[in-house]
Amino acid sequence: MTLLNLPKDVLIETCNYLDTRTLWKLMASCKPIHKLMECRAIWINQLKQLSSEYGIVGGTYDFYSMATPEIRKAAIRPYRFERAVQFEEINPIHYRTTIENEFVQLSKLAPGGRWLVTLSVPRSERGPSFCRVWDLQSKAQVSEPYASLPIEQQYFGHHLVLRPDSNGKTFQVIFAPRPPNQEALWRVYILQFDHLNEAGERLRKMHTFEASGHSSLIQLIGNYIISGSSVVCAS
Questions:
Q1: What is the CATH number of domain 3-86?
Q2: With 80 as the cut, is the pLDDT of residue 83 above it?
Q3: pLDDT at 214 over 60
Q4: Helix axes 40-54, 20-27, angle to 10 degrees
Q5: CB 203 within 8 Å of CB 193
Q6: What pTM value is reported for the model?
Q7: Strand pairing of 156-164 and 147-151?
Q8: What is the rounded distance in angstroms from the CA atom of residue 85 to the CA atom of residue 77?
Q9: What is the pLDDT of residues 21-73, one digit of tens each?
Q10: Is residue 192 within 8 Å of 204, Cβ to Cβ?
Q11: Which CATH number fits domain 102-233: 2.40.128.270, 3.30.1330.60, 3.40.50.300, 2.40.128.460?
Q12: C-alpha–C-alpha distance, residues 138 and 135, integer Å
């Protein structure tokens, strides 16, 4: 008995146990298998597994509105990216925005590649600093920030941490602006980003706390945020 003699539902169930690399090679084996691999359920399952494996935040992919080729393309993107890096086929992307007179000090790409978080300061001495979230899936030629929140301090430390919520749909932005003098303690900010909030604030300050010790180092262990000798529950 060959692979093609198996019932279709058995083949689809078998595909759910294969990784992306194997599925990609299986598609190229023959036309009947390639036709079978157009099944939407196979690639939704594969993309959900990848989202769990890489910690991709919710809202990156809309399984209900995406066409099957889009889901398949998203599922094989990590594998194709690895191949592109291996064969040095990566080209830079130029991203134009409406923001001027700001300097980005820190940035972090949320797992999944859709949301980019930046901490920026004004090029002049006047004006607030900003935490901004950018939607890299935006089709606009010149992009506006998806969410922004002004920050009082002018300079940031060296750590910017993104922590996915327990529901997997949003994430928290955690950072520590530099204190005004060496004697002052570092203050850790915890912001909540909610891309599902269309009516209210998409980015808001949850709370802050002073870190014991003069350090901007931020660590996450489970639901706890550790900075210096201070430990705070993030939930």
A1: 1.20.1280
A2: no
A3: no
A4: 150
A5: yes
A6: 0.64
A7: unpaired
A8: 12
A9: 888 888 888 888 888 888 888 888 888 888 777 667 666 778 788 888 888 88
A10: yes
A11: 2.40.128.460
A12: 6
